[in-house]
Amino acid sequence: MTILARNPVHSVLWLVLAFFNAAGLFLLLGAEFLAMILVIVYVGAVAVLFLFVVMMLDIDFAELRAGFAKYLPFGLLLAFILLTELVLIGGAWTFADFAPAVKAAPVTATEGLSNTQALGGLIYTRYVYIFQGAGMVLLVAMIGAIVLTHRQRPGVRRQNIAAQVARQPSDAVSLVKVESGKGVDVP
């Protein structure tokens, strides 16, 4: 439904549901830490960022849908190639001579370690560069979202911080002596 929904806001909400489903699968596998990280990072940050970007962008959906038919054959060809590659890779893995040995390979001992400790030890030793690369991808995505939404619009009043800082109290406040029983004439 994330892909098939016509409204982009609904697509992001379906994506949030997909993240919750993945977190539920992690819980069923006994990886509680990964489930909570998925909910906190992806649902709490990335999906909310996507939702704000989708709501802030001024997208012309009629123009977007008009170009869809033009690229449909190319998209179907690309989808077919991807599906074929996935089937070939899955078949090669299932029927390979070494597959049973790899599936039965011993896992490093983690007795006495919690899921969080075992995962932290693995991420910060063996996969530290991949972990840092994933952080860089998220940083680039955040910068891209900011760049896409930040544009100059005519007729919008901008904040002048220098004028606000240089303002004196005498410019903003005027003391008026009002006689008792009379009103104040405001200029």
From TrEMBL:
Its EC number is 7.1.1.-. GO terms for molecular function: NADH dehydrogenase (quinone) (non-electrogenic) activity. Pfam families: Oxidored_q3. It is an enzyme of class 7 (translocase). NDH-1 shuttles electrons from NADH, via FMN and iron-sulfur (Fe-S) centers, to quinones in the respiratory chain. Couples the redox reaction to proton translocation (for every two electrons transferred, four hydrogen ions are translocated across the cytoplasmic membrane), and thus conserves the redox energy in a proton gradient. Belongs to the complex I subunit 6 family. This is NADH-quinone oxidoreductase subunit J. The lineage of its organism: Bacteria, Pseudomonadati, Pseudomonadota, Alphaproteobacteria, Sphingomonadales.
